[in-house]
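User: New here, any thoughts?
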Amino acid sequence: MAINSNQFASETEPVSVGAARFIVRDANTASLATLEASSGAPYASLVNVATLPSGAPVMTMSSLALHHANVATDNRVSLLFNGTPKNGDPLEGGRVAVSGRAREVEDQNIARRFMARHRHAFYTSFGDFGFYVIDIDRVHYVAGFGRIRRFNSELFLVPSDLGEVEAELIDRLNADHGDIIAACASDNPVPPAKSWRICGVDIEGADLECDGVTLRLQFPAPATTAEVVLERLVDLARNPK
């Protein structure tokens, strides 16, 4: 599959689609907006999130939750991803609103990817919980005052070439390359008894997790094979930001 290099977060343009996608991939939670089934009024709630290798958001919902009843009636949703915590003025920071339709899925790979990021989400084993993928219609990215762009799904989503080998690749990296992973996370200290592990890989980066804390590593260029993923991680370990 051909890859458009303009899709990746190595872009220098501050309002790039890659920068928007980084905020979405980096987030553990998002604000979910739905329409109340009873009145049609807007309703906002907080949900845990992960992403597919393509960048599409994934979340869980309980059938007992109000937002689940809303989605069952009208599956149009919007997720707000907040990339502003490190900014003194939050309105100068980045935030991304992803709008689309929530679709329930029964897919072990999707469940695995979510659970790898949220290892303590024991509730997903309850019978009333299901996994939902957001089929994106549009993405609204605000990078700060006056820096706003909108993207359609074709531009926002990336090829998911690593999807079939991701689980095996993650197991191998965590088993054999803990030193490289630790070096990549060197600017994010954790207690000595804890260790970082990779919980997700895609062609533009990797997600690390340690005791509920997550870290997004962005590759300087796309990695379309397992071998190139390792090369990119070695480069990041040698040159941590």
User: Anything to note?
Assistant: The beta strands are 29-35, 42-51, 57-62, 76-83, 94-105, 129-144, 147-152, 197-202, 205-210, 213-218. The longest helix spans residues 226-238.
